Please model this.
Amino acid sequence: MSDQTDVLPGTLDLLIMRTIAFEPMHGWAIAQRIHQISNDLLRIQQGSLYPALHRLEHQGWITAEWGASDNNRRARFYALTRAGRRQLTTEVAKWERLSAGVNLVLQRT
Amino acid sequence: MRIWHILRSRARSVLLRDRREADLTEELQFHIDRETDRLHARGVPIEAARQQARRTFGGVEQIKDVCRDARGTAILDTLVRDTRYGLRRLVRDWRFTVAGVLILGLAIGSITAMFSVVNAVLFRQQAVAEPDRLVNIYQNDRAGQPLVVTTYAAYVEMAAYTDIFAATMAASIPNPVRYLDDGAIRDAVAEYSTATYLDVLGLRPSIGRWFDKTEERRGAPLVAVLGYQTWTSVFRADPSIVGRIVRIEGLPVTIVGIGPVNHRATVDIGLGTDFWLPITALPAMTAVPAIRDAPTILAPLVVKARLRQGVTVTQAKAAMDVLGPRLAAEFPEEYRREGEFALGTGITVVASTRVRVHPQADKAMMALASLVLVIVGLVLAIACSNLATLLLVRGATRAKEIAVRLAIGATRSQIVRHLLIESLLLSLAGGVAGCLLAGWGLQTLQRIDLPVRVDVTLDSRVLAFTIALSLVTGVAFGLAPALKATRVDLLPSLRDEGLQPIDHRRLTLKNALIVVQVAVSVLLLGGTSIFLQQLAATRALRAGYAVDGVAMIETDVRFAGYSAAAAENLYRELLRRIAIIPGVQSAALLRGLPMQNNSVTIVVDGATGTAGSTVKAGMLDAGPGFFDTLRIPLLYGRTFDARDRANTPRVAVITERTAREYFGTLNAVGRRFRLENDPSSWTEVIGVVRETGTGRFDDDVLDPVPPPIYVSYTQSGAPPTTVLARTSGDAAALVAAMRRELRAMDATLPVMTAKTMRRELEESQAVPKAVAMFLGVLGGLGLVLASIGLYAVVAFAVARRSREIGIRMALGASRQQVVWSVARGVAGLIGVGTGVGLILSVIAMLALRAVGSRDTGIGNIAVYRPEIDPVTLLAIAGVMALVGVAAACVPARRAARLDPLVALRHE
Model:
């Protein structure tokens, strides 16, 4: 557990949007997916996941709808809106620039 | 689009708040359940799995809170919630709420109403074109101060400076006139002006035209312009009025136009002008021979001019400096005249924007207005300090509640927000109450039958100002204790040891506020006493004549088109008929009403009195039988009789006061005087009568009634107007009988006045009554407010000390001792406050006396000089002390009734 990292502040939105870019998912699944894809490297604080979802929804980048989950219970599924998709592209580009820059600096020194 | 989305989402989240809440709960629960399932599937026992899921998830409620915040609905939500909470608190503490709303409402209401009046009189700006180019021109007196009066001759000379002035106009000061409308006589205000009036102001008539130069010639048919406001209010904005003939002062006058919109009067002090007539109509309209027959226009004129483009006020001044000495050389007679309006050679030119009424009068009016505002401001000060006291006391008593809430997790900002919202709610409720009160007050004010009709509208700026002020007060004094209370050390407050050291400091904010309230209340009551004193003096003044059984009827024959000769016969016949009405003991003719005298300036021959030779007198045109009818005793000489005719030497009857002050002796029979403006009017005193209260009292404050002089209407050149009669029976019945007699003689004759002497006397006291009432209400208000404050402070002290009181009583203190220990502190506060108030009252009275005895320079404005009456002042102090002690006693007695056991356990 000790080699797990909390996500960087500010990147949570990016991770959420990227995760639901292909299909609508509910909150627990989003957290699981991020966990799995990052090879258990990234751990999402539950305390910040839901506020982030609600904030993104409020900003109009994702929408939420009630649907049936895999265990046949009512769950809130989040999907990316068109504005959200555009936002995701810019955010990804921004992130790539940032990480490339950080990497460069780290390699030089 | 995004903005729209956000707004919609926000609106939805507010509207669907309950559903959102349920959704959020379900969503989070789903997460936890799902996580439990996952762990369980891995072999963790179900209970342990649930616990672990919950632990990793964290505080559900905190997350919910953050989610709500993320939605951006939090602010609105909490606002609604806090407002609800605040309302609940205010309803629960309804006594405090009612007191607060009343205090604020009364203060906001009264100051707004008063300022609206002051605003109407003093500050409302007049609409004229290019106001910067307008100047007012006045002839100076010998001291170089501008006079009220500019003569017509001087105006003509001023108007000749066409290289300086683009246009020049003169208008008389407002004159009371009466006109016939729909068979009823109406009171109105007329101005006599030149044809150039609107050219100077740069305004246009709203309908029709202004009168022109040809109509300004003497002897031209009479025309008039109707004031816009009168047109809309009295004539229901009927355009066909233009071209119609209206009888003004009995004379047929053709209406040629309606005045400019929003133009009320030349000198706008809230008194709207109903008619503008050519300046030359003045002699025809008046019945006073001196004015009627004078070779030139005799009227106090306001002269205004429009400067030519590019001409400065200084240049105009320079031109008038040349004119002054020239006028003096041209009219040496006029400039030699002594007395009140003695002309100096100087001429004053002032930009019109810098004058309200008259350069000299403005100062007095400003002083008067400031006085009124100071008085109302004092009430506002009481109210604000009162509110502050209440809030401080409440804030302190809530310290424990606040501590509890802090302890169970409320944040400081939440609590401060709650208190702030409560204060705001209270202030707003007070503001609403204030609006209602101000509206009601102004309505009532306008219903009071004052001699001056002032057009007053509620001033929204003032309303906004006072509401803002109360908001600030409410917030400032609601917040300070809130901030203090939230900084408390929790433990002692919660435990409420009740052993906090008793506050022995004397100079706390609360105490200071109470002292201020008591002092200002005393000051207001002191002011009330001044006017009550005056009212009492007026009442107590021996009328000096018969009142019961006396009645009068006034008509103006000019309205029925009578000639002078026919008028004389008519009045003589009317007098004869009234004299034979059963029960009538005596009847007489006079001009005007028995308590109305014309202020004139007379020159006393060989004056030996204290006043000098040129003095003011109140002249009344009476006839034979006048003194008999009013039962005024004759001291020396004789009264009027049939010997006094138009062609015999002029005679007069004076009162003992006139004789003493102007002639230096009681028996002034045989002495002479003349009218100042008529050198040939030498009149001999033929009799001296007992002093009377003749003269209305309604303008006493500003214009003391000058000593009366009676002349005979048979010699004054104007017909009488009124029959005065005394009956052994009922005066009201006599009024009805007199009406019948007049109607029987000529049904077209309008009744101007028909009333009993009793009624006339009552009406004459309207103004001092109104002023005394106004101040009395304010003083009473202050008293009530101050006692509320005292009550609150004492109740607070008792609540704080109930444990101490319980200990004392358990140790054997008697009830009296408990009451005394509570009351002692209050008595000190009341004592100090009352003392300060009394000192301020005396200072105020001394100041009034000082102002009253100084010559203000314009005409006869003199302020009432109050007597400093120690008995009254002591009585006021006593009342204040009594009310204060009573207010303090209620909670003090409650303290004394405390059961020691309960008190000791009191938490």
